[in-house]
Write a structure and sequence with these properties.
Length: about 475
Amino acid sequence: MTGSRDGAIGRIESYFDDGGFLVDLQRRVAIPTTSQETDSMPALRAYLADEMSPSLARLGYACEIIDNPRPEYGPFLIARRTEDPATPTVLTYGHGDVVRGQDEQWRSGLSPWTIVVEDGRIYGRGTADNKGQHSINIAALDAVLRERGKLGFNSTILIETGEETGSPGLAEFCRQHKDKLKADALIGSDGPRLEPTRPAIFGGTRGAMNFTLSLDLRAGGHHSGNWGGLLANPGLILAHAIACIADVRGQIQVPEWRPKTLTNSVRMALAGLTIDGGPDGPQIDTDWGEESLTPPERVFGWNSFEVLAFKTGNPDKPVNAIPPSAIAHCQLRFVVGTDPNDILPALRRHLDKHGFGNVVVAPAREVIMNATRLDPDDPWAKWAVASIERTTGRKPDVIPNLGGSLPNEVFTDILGMPTVWVPHSYASCSQHAPNEHLLAPVAREALRLMTGLFWDLGEQGRPR
């Protein structure tokens, strides 16, 4: 074994400081991998075939691009570097697809497909979600290889191209290729830190169920002067139906949607955490959400119901008519302990009980992201905390599960491994919006701590 931990970290610092990170990231951002667009398949495949496969092959990975079991969706890349079967194997995950560019909505001087650095921010679509994050992890692996001459463990990298559409086909793919993806643990990066200046790890994610509530009472609108007071207004009825789902401060009223308990281990892990989106982030509404919980407990330990969009009549050109129909696009983010198969049936029972049997409940999409959670005392979690603290001099925030959703149950339930996520973004990065960006200081620190983490794994072996 040659080289040193400090030497590997020095290499990754030079990679960032000399511009190598931006060069690699620009190539990747320039490929418009917008999986939500119907004509995106060539770009999705090009990202894997023309960019990621050659990049990983240079690091000694054997790369294989495999079609999605659902052929209408984008392919997968499995890259494997096997050094010694006696050493641990780590699976690293990333997604190469991004949301729509929204080109015309970016501020002057910015483009979703061109990297621009201003005031410590690296702008471009995918810089935060997720090209920048998996690029950091791959660069850290490269730094360890260059310094040590080997990783000291076996590495498998999985890159999908459909996460922004709910990861269709991922579960089937992992079942079909379980042997190729077998590993001791997953170490991945996605999502935000709680605070921009403080590293974090999380062990799982909340689940997500999207659905619609709709009410269609008649064909066409009718003059509100002639028919007002005689015809039921679907917008009003649907508003009252929503109001019986959550109260005036957003507290969930559907009994089955309320977690049975917030365990002591989760409370202890969340105690003292601070949620800070940075200077451009929104201020937390202290009088919103479950009244008995702290803000971190509300977003990481509890369920939340959201109305994403509500439409009745013609909002852009309202007329004096009672609308014929109304629709609300809704979402439940849920934690471990909530039965995903009972979410919509429970809502149906609740609406019927409150007299809204005519409101139609329908799932918005086939794919459901289920809830997962890793015990903060798991050996892999404790090892990651110690490694990051060694590199940065600060103990990272430890979160049992992220507030957002990822297809993490594929790794925990199908592949059967513990999952450690190390996020490299922050809450106000504008992912899924115009002006998406990655903070340069966070990217540099992330490169350092991931290099330290991969170095320690090769040096220490499996956590015990």
